[in-house]
Structures are given as structure tokens and as C-alpha cells.
Design the sequence.
């Protein structure tokens, strides 16, 4: 029961880290696209490294390659289906999913919420596994990448007409999808222990899909591919170091 509570609390704290990234919005009207693209690249690098070292490798070690592949595929499909059937908008691709009368701000927040859910799921699965070192590494990784992600969310919200304080608040609120994912992840793995390898790989597949489908294209769209790529590499290295320290 203690791990369940820790998993829920950790996913909440990790989600709130998005608000830290939104703080610069209160003091600056805008930030250089080079900085935001580098930050997005960094976040993507952290997520990919976390997916490999903290999710996929443990999934293979505990359940074998076949289960890991199945979980990875289903995790990717899960986010794809959400993208197709939940109305939302991306800065790069515009409105996706069914037609909706929701405002642009609401659609942007839905897009981020969809992408935050698998991150919370990963944290919950980590704690549900009963391995505190693994869970701590995953939680730190997601919190770390949520900070630049919060900045990347808040400034576009100002761009569509929100005031600074409200943009920061809305960016913070998008992180609340992570505790929901965390609860589902920790309860599933705690009460159905056989689901652990599948759940680890599922979370990895969902996160890799988000990085590949949205974060990398978004970080490259303004012509700052080099900065975004270096950000990605630095994020990947930072996550490798964290993984070495805690696992």
C-alpha cells in the first residue's frame, strides 16, 4: 500500500513540474525559438533514454522480448488512437481528431494532456513494480523533461491570447493528466503483477510515439534542427547518467 501511495504522490509531483517550466512566462513576453526548440529536443532525449533504459530493458529482463514488443506496439497504438479520436490541436499540425467547437486554448491543452498521460503511466508502473530505484529514476526523468515542456506549452498559449498568469496556470493544469496515468499504472501492476513487463513496454511505446510524432517534428519546424538535435543528445546523456546513478 505504501508503494501505491508513493506512486500516486510521485506522479502528482512530476506533473506539477510542468508548472516550473511555465514560470519564465511571468517574467518574459517571449523566449527565443532556439531556446524552446533546444528545450523540446532535450525533453525528447530524456524521454527516449528513459523509455529504453528504465522501461524497455526492464520489460525484456522480466518478461522476455516477445511481451516487450507486444506492449511497446500497444502503447504506440494507444496514443495514436487518442490522437485520432480526441479533438485537439498542435502548433505544427493544427487541429486533429473529430470536429469540435472547443476553443483553440482548450484544444491545445487537450493535446498536451494526451501526451502527459503516458508519462504519468510510466511513473505509476515504476512504483507498482516495487523497485524504488527504478521508480525514482523514471520519476526524475519525467519531472526533468516536464520543465522544458512546460515552457514550450505556456508561450504558445500567450500567442493565442491568454494573459501570462493564466497561461502559466493552464500549463500547470495540463500536468494533472499524469497523476491519472500514475494511478492506473500503479494499481494495475500492484494487483496484477504479471502485467508488469507488458505495462513497462506499453509506457515506453506510448512515450516513444509522442517524441517521434510530435516533439521532434515540432522542435525542427523553425529551422533550428541543429540546436534541437544537440538538446536531444544532451537530454539522452543526462538520462543515461541518472540511470547509472540510481540503478
Sequence:
Amino acid at each position: 500500500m505504501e508503494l501505491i501511495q508513493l506512486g500516486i504522490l510521485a506522479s502528482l509531483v512530476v506533473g506539477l513540474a510542468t508548472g516550473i517550466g511555465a514560470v519564465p512566462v511571468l517574467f518574459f513576453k517571449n523566449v527565443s525559438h532556439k531556446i524552446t526548440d533546444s528545450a523540446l529536443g532535450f525533453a525528447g532525449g530524456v524521454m527516449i533514454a528513459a523509455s529504453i533504459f528504465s522501461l524497455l530493458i526492464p520489460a525484456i529482463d522480466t518478461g522476455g522480448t516477445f511481451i516487450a514488443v507486444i506492449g511497446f506496439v500497444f502503447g504506440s497504438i494507444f496514443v495514436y488512437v487518442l490522437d485520432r479520436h480526441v479533438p485537439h490541436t498542435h502548433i505544427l499540425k493544427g487541429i486533429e481528431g473529430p470536429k469540435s467547437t472547443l476553443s483553440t486554448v482548450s484544444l491545445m491543452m487537450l493535446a498536451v494532456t494526451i501526451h502527459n498521460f503516458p508519462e504519468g503511466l510510466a511513473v505509476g508502473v515504476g512504483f507498482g513494480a516495487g523497485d524504488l530505484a527504478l521508480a525514482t529514476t523514471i520519476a526524475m526523468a519525467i519531472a526533468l523533461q516536464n520543465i522544458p515542456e512546460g515552457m514550450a506549452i505556456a508561450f504558445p498559449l500567450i500567442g493565442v491570447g491568454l494573459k501570462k498568469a493564466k497561461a502559466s496556470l493552464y500549463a500547470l493544469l495540463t500536468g494533472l493528466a499524469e497523476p491519472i496515468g500514475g494511478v492506473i499504472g500503479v494499481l494495475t501492476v500492484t494487483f496484477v503483477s504479471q502485467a508488469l513487463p507488458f505495462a513497462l513496454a506499453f509506457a515506453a511505446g506510448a512515450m516513444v510515439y509522442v517524441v517521434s510524432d510530435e516533439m521532434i517534428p515540432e522542435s525542427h519546424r523553425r529551422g533550428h534542427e541543429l540546436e534541437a538535435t544537440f538538446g536531444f543528445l544532451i537530454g539522452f546523456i543526462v538520462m543515461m547518467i541518472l540511470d547509472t546513478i540510481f540503478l
Summary: Residues 2-246 form one domain. The first strand starts at residue 88 and ends at 90. The chain has one domain: 2-246. The mean pLDDT is 83.
